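Posting this for the archive.
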Amino acid sequence: MSIARPLRQLTRAAVAFAAGETGLPMPPPRNDEIGELAAAFRVMMQRRREAEERVRQLADDLAEGRRRLADILDSVPAVVFEHWSMTDCRRNFVSSHVETMYGYTPEEWLSTPDFFAGRIHPEDRPEVLERAARQFAGNQVDGKQVFRWITKDNRVIWCETQAPSSATPTTGPPAFAASPWT
């Protein structure tokens, strides 16, 4: 029995498997070490296909969970948002109520550097940013702030933000909720 051909097939299969392929032809079953190796490859490819299917299902479940959460947050009559810091441009989320409340689209909020800080009334900005910086640094400060905000149509309105948690390496950025203050 020749081993050259089955070894070439297994070599090609190993290279293809390393590149992410899993539906590869294997040498026919044999009762020797080459057969055992081919059987091990078949099991490995099957387990990888199963693992990839589990990952796809988990990704779908996560996407559906995010859609449901966004729907829930969008029904809250406040702006729910998440920031990494007041100076870091990474913003993960803002609910669609931002458009109703302030006139800005979620896309404007998420894509504009310093969006939040730039909309705080100039007289309130230093104190708001200083308190937010302490909050982001993990210092225990009351997460509630009341200040003036400039809407897209240049109205000045009072709003209240609440940050129920502080940023930490394990919890990530604080999540905030802003609502009109009356």
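The radius of gyration is 27 Å. The chain has a mean pLDDT of 82.
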